[in-house]
Amino acid sequence: MQVTETLAEGLKRELKIDVPANDLASKLDDYLNELKTKANIKGFRPGKVPVGHLKKMYGRQAMAEILSNTIQESTQKAVEERSERPALTPEIDLPEEDAEKILAGDADLSFTMTYDVLPEFEIMDFSGIEIERPVVEIADEEVDQQIAEIAKNNTPFDTKDGPAESGDRITMSYVGKIDGEPFEGGADENGMLVLGSGQFIPGFEDQLINLKAGDEKVVELTFPEDYPAAHLAGKAATFDVTVKDVAAPGEATVDDDFAKGLGLESLDQLKEIVRGQIESQFGALTRQRVKRQLLDKLDEHYSFDLPEKLLESEFDVVWRQVEEDMKRNEKTFEDEETTEEEAKAEYRKIAERRVRLGLVLSEIGEKNDIQVTDEELQRALYDRVRQFPGQEQQVFEFYKNNQQALASLRAPIYEEKVVDYILELAKVSDKTVTKEELEKLVAEDEDDA
């Protein structure tokens, strides 16, 4: 094999690789001799099939396989001998007219491979990075407010005599019909509805006011034009309703008994859980803010040329998302007070930042032997599977049999571990803020993204 560098410009590389026809012929002979020991062809004893006969039957197919393997092996060897790291899989150019001659054994294998190499850069001293971590202190009043909301959502109801009023809970059976025919999903034997909650189609609840247990009523209304079920949207419908029970709201007393009714041991345990949930909510925002500061610091520090193909690939992903969002929201570039060219320039900068930071984080992780464990990946996979109730097995098999999809689960875990590694070495100071201040900081970060 002979390797000739034909282009070395910035990060771009082009190599011409030549493999003599004699080498290919030798590989073909080895292949056929191996096949000879296994071939079972009518008219010949096992192991006695002439190589010439095998070549006539399988030569072209064998040579095609040999070519594919030789190209793969030679490109990998060429890169390894040059101690280079391609940003993406090298592109191979083998002219079609040459391929036919090579398959026939009448020409040397000669092809070009082009690729971008990963840029080289020094890992910075992370101890010089200063990060301010905004921390929200959870006041007792905040916890009490959340518990009051829980109590509101668990309001006790007691059966009452007399007509239903707004705020009362009705238990009913109903059958929905369009043009006199029941429709799928429009019936329930023991449906519960708090009047005034807005849980049902507009106009439904209003027509139940003043009904008593045992009353029957035909509710007439029209489904909204934007109703999620397309076959019902805008359609006139009737509901045959029978009221089974009318219950008036009581008042939940927030005490140990209330907490036990939620399956907990005491009110103190409820408060502890609620505080933890609030802290987790704001903790996620704090993490988001801290990570954004860190990435901004890295982006400010690093400046190097990017692999063109890698950048184009990332920009295509970003731009496709932009186009889908605009189409879904029925927006134009004029609506956003910009032009397509200006928007592309802006989103190209975003793609450049993503690629640059991705390379930096990857290099930091590699140099410091940061790994995603099998257990971490397994947890991420199970979390993903749980997002598709009823399709768990199909989703599990999809990820197990698709390395690219599995890599998409690994990537964010790896990134977070690298970020954690850097933060351990950086100077991180806490600053107490209100929840409104934290939310504003995060919103500003999102606006600048």
UniProtKB/TrEMBL annotation:
What catalytic activity does the UniProt entry give for this protein? [protein]-peptidylproline (omega=180) = [protein]-peptidylproline (omega=0)
Enzyme Commission (EC) number? 5.2.1.8
State whether keyword Nucleus applies. no
Can the keyword Chaperone be found in this entry's annotation? yes
Assign the protein's first listed, main location to one coarse class: cytoplasm
- Keywords on record: Cell cycle, Cell division, Chaperone, Coiled coil, Cytoplasm, Isomerase, Rotamase
- Give an example GO molecular function: peptidyl-prolyl cis-trans isomerase activity
Coiled-coil ranges (or none): 326-353
Q: Tell me, what's a Pfam family for it?
A: Trigger_C
Positions of transmembrane segments = none
The entry's localization annotation reads: Cytoplasm
Q: What does this protein do?
A: Involved in protein export. Acts as a chaperone by maintaining the newly synthesized protein in an open conformation. Functions as a peptidyl-prolyl cis-trans isomerase.
- HAMAP family this protein is in? Trigger_factor_Tig (MF_00303)
What UniProt notes about the protein's domains is: Consists of 3 domains; the N-terminus binds the ribosome, the middle domain has PPIase activity, while the C-terminus has intrinsic chaperone activity on its own.
Describe the family membership recorded for this protein in Swiss-Prot or TrEMBL: Belongs to the FKBP-type PPIase family. Tig subfamily.
The protein's name: Trigger factor
Originating species: Roseibium salinum
Q: What is the lineage of its organism?
A: Bacteria, Pseudomonadati, Pseudomonadota, Alphaproteobacteria, Hyphomicrobiales
